[in-house]
Automatic annotation (TrEMBL):
Residues that span the membrane, as ranges: 12-39, 311-331, 337-356
A Pfam family it matches: Acyltransferase
Keyword Magnesium: no
Highest rank taxon of the organism: Eukaryota
PANTHER family per the UniProt record, alphabetical: 1-ACYL-SN-GLYCEROL-3-PHOSPHATE ACYLTRANSFERASE GAMMA, 1-ACYLGLYCEROL-3-PHOSPHATE ACYLTRANSFERASE-RELATED
Gene Ontology cellular component list: endoplasmic reticulum
Protein name as catalogued: 1-acylglycerol-3-phosphate O-acyltransferase 3
The Phospholipid/glycerol acyltransferase domain, residue ranges: 90-212
Keywords, ordered alphabetically: Acyltransferase, Lipid biosynthesis, Lipid metabolism, Membrane, Phospholipid biosynthesis, Phospholipid metabolism, Transferase, Transmembrane, Transmembrane helix
InterPro entries assigned to the protein according to its UniProt record, in alphabetical order: Acyltransf_C, Plipid/glycerol_acylTrfase
A single BP term in Gene Ontology: phospholipid biosynthetic process
Organism of provenance: Seriola lalandi dorsalis
């Protein structure tokens, strides 16, 4: 085990894995670009192909979580809810506390066969991120600038397009709008007090506009809302860099299913329903902190081999010529070639580190709370 942990910590292995992810992502993005010619001919075929292509990229990250780091994911829910996983369009409400919360969500999507068709209401800045933003663009992900006056038409148009999506999708919403930090929490609770809303201990005040709009636009398509509350054993603070280094975490996810029919249609009542939901999420976090687990039965869905096989396919395809080229450079003895190859490795390592930085809490927080007069919807 010590040897395996040492191997996982080797920078060269991590760099090779990053190389596979980046190059395969660029290949996938190019293929996605080529599929655009299908859109005016057969929109649903375009969508099904892009679901498979995005799966091939995202599953490499899921592989890191499941097979490389060996992170465990336990669900706290009932069997009746699990039986509906992957068999209906749903909206997912997830707390936004950790760098890898999206990855834990993706691993559940993968295990129930909907990773490729998973959606998110994403901040517009991510559209500019290579591989991630580009893949999401072809997947018809809805991007917003978190300024409702500018986002209104874009969000309505993007959500309306998804009404006839051919694959079952889980549409992720981070209703808090940004990752939880103590500073943001203090500002958020000041807003709650000014609005006469109950204060939350473990969450930011939810921004209701995104939820009410998504529910309104996808009414008739989505049949349920899944409230997911994520936490980690032993007060762990997981990071994507920790996953890359092979560190194992233990994730617990409480999942509650609410039928769309039981959620009010009226926008104000729907917003109040969401505030009440976050009060319940807060109570769940309080329970977890005291008991070390969520209430209810546990289910551990088995990991699937597909993520590992997919990575091995890309690794075999891409690393063979790279290693052959590297050996040729060394054998040639040319200082110019060797220096050029070393520069290539340095640039590649910096690029991969910057991609990892996209998930880091300290680098991705919004300007939430920087302006006292800033309003929450």
């Amino acid at each position: 085990m010590a040897l395996l942990a040492y191997l996982k910590s080797l920078f060269i292995l991590q760099l090779l894995m990053g190389f596979v992810f980046v190059v395969s992502g660029l290949i996938i993005n190019f293929i996605q670009l080529c599929t655009c010619i299908l859109w005016p001919i057969n929109k649903q075929l375009y969508r099904r192909i892009n679901c498979r292509l995005s799966y091939s990229l995202w599953s490499q990250l899921v592989m890191l979580l499941e097979w490389w780091s060996g992170t465990d994911c336990t669900l706290y829910t009932d069997q009746a809810t699990v039986d509906k996983f992957g068999k209906e369009h749903v909206i997912i409400i997830l707390n936004h506390n950790y760098e890898i919360d999206f990855l834990c969500g993706w691993t559940m999507c993968e295990r129930y066969g909907i990773l490729g068709s998973s959606k998110v209401l994403a901040k517009h800045e991510l559209l500019k991120v290579p591989l991630i933003g580009w893949t999401w663009y072809f997947l018809e992900i809805v991007f917003c600038k978190r300024k409702w006056e500018e986002d209104r038409n874009t969000v309505y148009r993007g959500l309306s397009r998804l009404k006839d999506y051919p694959e079952y999708m889980w549409f992720l919403l981070y209703c808090e709008g940004t990752r939880f930090t103590e500073k943001k929490h203090q500002i958020s609770m000041q807003v709650a007090e000014s609005k006469g809303l109950p204060k939350l201990k473990y969450h930011l005040l939810p921004r209701t506009k995104g939820f009410t709009t998504t529910l309104q636009c996808l009414k008739g398509t989505v049949t349920a809302v899944y409230d997911v509350t994520l936490n980690f054993k032993d007060n762990q603070t997981p990071t994507l860099l920790g996953i890359v280094n092979g560190k194992k975490y233990k994730a617990d996810m409480s999942v509650r299913r609410f039928s769309v029919e039981d959620i009010p249609d009226n926008e104000e009542e729907c917003a109040n329903w969401l505030h009440k939901l976050y009060q319940e999420k807060d109570a769940l976090q309080e329970y977890y902190n005291k008991e070390g687990k969520f209430p209810g039965p546990t289910i551990i869905p088995p990991r699937r081999l597909w993520t590992l096989l997919n990575f091995l396919f890309w690794a075999t395809l891409l690393l063979s010529p790279l290693i052959k080229f590297a050996c040729g450079v060394v054998v040639s003895g040319s200082p110019l070639l060797i220096i050029g190859f070393i520069i290539f490795l340095i640039i590649a390592s910096i690029a991969i580190r910057r991609l990892i930085g996209v998930t880091e809490v300290k680098k991705t927080g919004s300007s939430y709370g920087n302006q006292e007069a800033k309003k929450q919807n």
